[in-house]
Amino acid sequence: MIKRILFLLLAICLTFSANAQQKNAKTKGDVRYKLYLNYNGRMVPDFSTLGEPNETGTTDCIDLEGLDCENGDHYAMTFEYDLKVKKADTYTFRLCSDDGSNLYIDGKKLIDDDGEHGPVFKVADIKLEKGTHLVRVDYFEYHKSQSLTLYYKNSAIPDFIPLGLKSTNALPKFVVPQAKETAKRVKAWKGNDEVIIFPILTDVHTCNRTTYKHIGYMVEMDKYFGYDFMVNLGDIGLNTEPAHSLQSFADMIINNIRNEMAKYKGVFLFAPGNHEYDGGGGRHITSGELSELFQKPSLPYANGNLHLTDGNCWSYYDVPGKNLRLITLNSQNTETIGTYYTYGMEQLEWLIKLLNATPDGTDVLVFSHFMPNEIGRWPGTKNKNDASCNALMSVLSAYANKQSGKEAGLKWDFTKANGRLLGLFTGDSHLNAHVKENGVNYFISQGYGRAENKILKPEQKRAWFNSRQSLCCDVVVIKPATREIHTFRVGAGGEEMDYLFRY
Question: Which of these, 10, 215, 339, 461, is most buried using a 10 Å CB contact count?
Answer without folding.
Answer: 215
